[in-house]
Write a structure and sequence with these properties.
With about 270 residues, this protein is an alpha+beta fold. Helices cover about 30% and strands about 25% of the residues. It is built from 8 helices and 13 strands. The strands form 4 sheets. A 5-stranded antiparallel β-sheet has the order 8-12-9-10-11, with helices on one face. The N terminus is likely disordered.
Length: about 270
């Protein structure tokens, strides 16, 4: 029977080595052999020699690596990651994500990774399953799902696209009428400021700006029959934005208008 181990909280009363060897001891592995396998697992996560240390002395990132070492020491057929990076700060999350990716490739072990972070899903997976309200919405390779999301919810979740359901506005932005049962998805990188006379240009009003470092994200309102549609666009952070402007989409993305809400769940 294949064994599945979950990378989760550590035992605070045990040392690092005892934590890593815990699953092996439960399996009945002799103490000396368990200690040897635990040390090999710690070496694989760059924590050689840390076995005698109390867990409380480790940083958050080191504790995450100990939990991972505990899982791989048992040599399971499947590794289950349940939001493993959710308690880490941004810098440590990115570092640990790279480490998990490298270790996963090195081990060649099948891994099931549960996350609400779309960047983690896209960066770590070779197959993504997107769920909503307890059912599968879509699945496939991350590159394929991002490039051609099959549903409105998928487009909104993977890439933060604005879903334009107003048929007239969608036609003005796309330059063609929506196919039956489809709506227009516009990602922020595809919405660009243009001159008023350019093909596909629609009037917009600036609402807010957020500086994100290498880019700036603007929220703009575009008028539609049922009221303004709030859209996002990314620009060079040095670029000023007037109160009113014209925008168009550089990538037409028609998606199925699924019955579920296209507002992604909170993280």
């Amino acid at each position: 029977t294949a064994m599945v181990f979950q990378s989760y909280a550590l035992f605070p009363t045990m040392t690092v080595g005892e934590n890593v060897a815990y699953g092996l001891r439960v399996q009945g592995v002799p103490r000396a052999q368990a200690a040897e396998r635990a040390e090999r697992a710690l070496a694989r996560v760059d924590l050689s020699g840390a076995g005698p240390r109390p867990v409380a002395q480790l940083s958050g990132g080191q504790q995450q690596r100990v939990a991972l070492a505990r899982a791989i020491a048992a040599e399971p057929a499947v590794l289950l990651f349940d939001e493993p990076l959710s308690n880490l700060d941004v810098a440590l999350r990115e570092q640990t994500r790279v480490e998990i990716q490298a270790l996963q490739r090195d081990l060649g072990t099948t891994s099931l990774y549960v996350t609400h972070d779309q960047q983690e899903a896209l960066a770590l997976s070779d197959h993504v399953v997107l769920m909503r309200a307890g059912r599968v919405v879509s699945e496939g390779a991350p590159e394929a799902l991002y490039a051609a999301p099959p549903t409105a919810y998928t487009a909104a979740f993977l890439g933060g696209a604005t879903v334009v359901r107003d048929a007239d506005l969608a036609e003005r932005l796309a330059g063609s009428a929506p196919p039956p049962g489809h709506v227009l998805a516009v990602r922020p990188e595809a919405l660009v400021p243009v001159g008023a006379s350019e093909t596909g240009a629609v009037a917009a009003r600036t609402v807010s700006r957020q500086f994100l470092g290498v880019t700036a994200e603007w929220a703009v309102d575009v008028d539609a029959a049922a009221g303004p549609v709030r859209m996002r666009l990314w620009t060079d952070p040095r670029m000023p934005m007037p109160d009113t402007l014209y925008v168009r989409t550089e990538h037409v993305l028609w998606v199925t208008d699924d019955a579920l809400s296209t507002t992604p769940p909170p993280p």
